[in-house]
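Re: the pair you flagged

First of the two:
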Amino acid sequence: MNKNLDDKEYQQFRSFLEQQCGIVLGDNKQYLVKSRLAPLMARFDVGSLSELVAKTLSPRERQLRAAVVDAMTTNETLWFRDSYPFELLKNKLFPELAELRRPIKIWSAASSSGQEPYSIAMSAAEFKQMKPGALTGVSIVGTDISNTMLDICKNAEYDSLALARGLSPERRRKFFNDSGHGMARVNDDIKRMVTFRHLNLLDSFALMGKFEIIFCRNVLIYFSPEVKAKIIKQFHQALNPKGYLFLGASESMSGLSNDFDMIRCNPGIIYQKK
């Protein structure tokens, strides 16, 4: 029977999720847990949500635990979300970085199903078309905690519903190849600019290398203030001098870090490493 969790079960699950990936569930979010985890019941042959959570708490259930974290961390996204970060790339950051005359590395720190890193790559391609030879090379790394999402990213094929969310007809024609049945795949020129890898933002970023720009938008809102501060400190270490950090429109660095200068743009805000 797929019933709701009682308070004790919900508190146990909240603790598990925060420990595994830093996400802090608010009070009375049982409905969210139920909607995300219900599809796993048949897959793992359990009869109730309570049983599923009980098995999830067992360290022996590695496959189930991974599937649960996967389900709870999957978020919807869209192409060129909020638009202003991508305009800032083309109008401010790429012209600045072109002066460095070296390859530019960008990190999309929560790539979800790939729309953000591929949107960054398309922005770079549009800038290079406007200013031929201005950027010597742009490489983008997309990371996510969800292996299911990373598989979608790497496949780079999207259905008509996903394609309709934020993607103009012009960009679809320019950067996608139709693959039949309403599906379209990101073209090879854009795909070559982007690589993907698994990363839990609670882990060390030391092996990621150094970047000119990091995107981590609409992710920190799920973490506790202590975890937010730790992640921002690691982003600071992963940025080259004067590197830039994009947060979500509703996210702020206030009270979390003094290592960045806030730059007000019109519209939007970006943070630059001091």
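Second of the two:
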Amino acid sequence: MTCPGRNFEMLSFKAAVAALSISFGMTVIAPAIAPQMMVVEAAGGGGTAVVAVVNGTPITSGDVAKRVNFLRLQRAKGNLNSVAKQQLVDEAIERTGVLASGTSVSNEEVDAAYARFAANNKLSVEKLNEIMKQSGVTVDHFKSFIAISMSWPRAVQIRFGDSNKMTAGDIGARIAKSGANRPKVNEYILKQVIFVVPESKKNIAGKRKAEAEASRKKFPGCDQALAFAATMRDVSVKDLGRFLEPELPDNWKEPIKKAPMGGTTTTQVTPRGVEFIAICSKREVSDDAAAAAVFREEDLKKPGKQNEVDPNAKKYLEELRAKANVVMK
């Protein structure tokens, strides 16, 4: 997932949410909206009657009410109750694809995206929590939206691979059209060091974090990473391979950029335990892959792209919908 540009002009809340659903980067809540958010009652009174069942998972009138409030914040028009219900049904279907592909994001990734959304709107997390509560959306509903918005593109990528990959001809034509030089970007070779915390022992996460912080300061380099990990208990090392800077995961991008070559990032607590990333190598490259990564990132900055639907995502949703058991109440 790439990070969008840092030079967005002021967007409406609707555009902000559209940008958020793509990349969880620099988005802005229009100041005319944010201070005046009030609880909006959706049709049906926000009760808990089941209005649809998707593959055995119920969608309630309370869920619909929250989504209607979310749509109102986006200044959506039309029959919001119907739109909300359809969105929730589609998201429930998308989750089946996410679960099948194992691409579900972690709670930590969702929390980090939520915090970035707050920061990029010049809000504290606490203030954003308050806005979500006052608006009738709720924090949990917004985070659920974030989770599927982050996970679904990964599932689509697994399903279709690189069918949208730019060809050498596409890249050459774009460079010629812009009159600019071929883009240059940093390429990283990375390893992931994980201090494992079993699900049944989450209470030791603080202790493991202290151990991870102490160990990374003594990290001997990638060549000795396995031997180094073997001296400690329940520590694993994973080769992450090659990453171009625009392709770095959002929650690791800044720590990786700040880390010295041969060094490590700061630690992060994840569902697996406590992790840090080792920077095995870092170099500037200017090949077709680098150009394609830069162009993809640039494209995501364009406001017009925020409302476009990936044709593969649409195709995959239709595939899953044809197999889904959907009962509308």
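Residues 41 and 56 are 27 Å apart (CA to CA).

-B.
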